[in-house]
Structure formats: structure tokens, C-alpha cells
Automatic annotation (TrEMBL):
It comes from Cycloclasticus pugetii. It comes from the Bacteria. This is Smr protein/MutS2-like protein. PROSITE patterns: SMR. SUPFAM superfamilies: SMR domain-like (SSF160443). Residues 98-179 form the Smr domain.
Amino acid sequence: MPEDKKKRLSSDNDSQLFREFIGEVNILSNTERHFYDDTSKPKPIKKSFPPLKADHEYIVDHTNDITSEQYVFFAHSSVQAKTIKKLKRGAITINETIDLHGLDKQQAQHYIRECIREQLELQQRYLLLIHGKGTRSLNQSPVLKNLCVNLLKNDSAVLAFASAQPKDGGTGALYVLLRQKR
């Protein structure tokens, strides 16, 4: 017999047969339900690093023509195609999230370098670098996005990077693949 929308059996015979088959039922005293899907993603923790000495400070500033909505990709020639595909899809386990919101160019550069160095020491290879889209910058130019692209391209520890999937920040974030520590 078909059931109605409230999942009640449509005839008394079916109901009686069901109760005979199941037998006696013990009602649970605790009816509290647990939903594990409601857990939120962990929030990235901003770390503080000691300031750089003046003789080591320099800003990489080669390209400023990347737009906020532009997809960015770079890969060293030694990276396998399968790894590149996984990186572009976001099918990776992110070991660390770096959030640059609220930092100026100099602070962001220092923070990126220190985080990369720290991740190499911990032998963690995948980062999510959140630079933002830069829509509130002067002339709508994404200052931190341009800085990140230039900095990562010139860092020997970085094997590849690609704009993130929309769920991880889209063109306002980058997936970064680091080399293994030697």
C-alpha cells in the first residue's frame, strides 16, 4: 500500500502487520539530535612575525596589470600535469591559510615570506593565500593580488599557484604548491 506524505501507512492491516513484525519498541529518553554538517570551517589565525631589518626589505613590483577578476596561474616546468590539474580544481588538502586582508604591501610581503618559510620547515606543501579582490583599492587595482603573483613567481620555494575555486575565495585567493624541503 502506498504511504502518504507524513509517512503513515495507508491501512490498518499494514500497520498491524508492521507492529507484529517489529515487536516491542523501547522509547529512548534522549531525543536530542546531532547534526555534524553545521560545523563551520576553522578561521585562519593571523600570526605575527618580527619585523625585517631595513637591509633585507624590498618590494617586488614588476607587474601591476592583473585585474581583480582575472584568473591567475603559474607552474614550474617540473610540476606534473596531474598535480597542476588537482591544484586548479582545488582538489588538494590545504595545510595552511594565509589571510592578507588589512595588510599593506610591505607587511604582506614579509608575512608571505615568513609563512612560506614556516611551511617548508613543517613540510607542508599546500597553502591557501587570501589576498582579496582589491575592489576597495585606489583605481580598483588589486594591489595585494599583483604583489602575491610577482612574489610567488620569483620565490624558488613555490612550484605552482592558481586562482582558487569560488568556494575558497575565487579570484581573491590563490592555491599555492610549495617544493619539498631538501
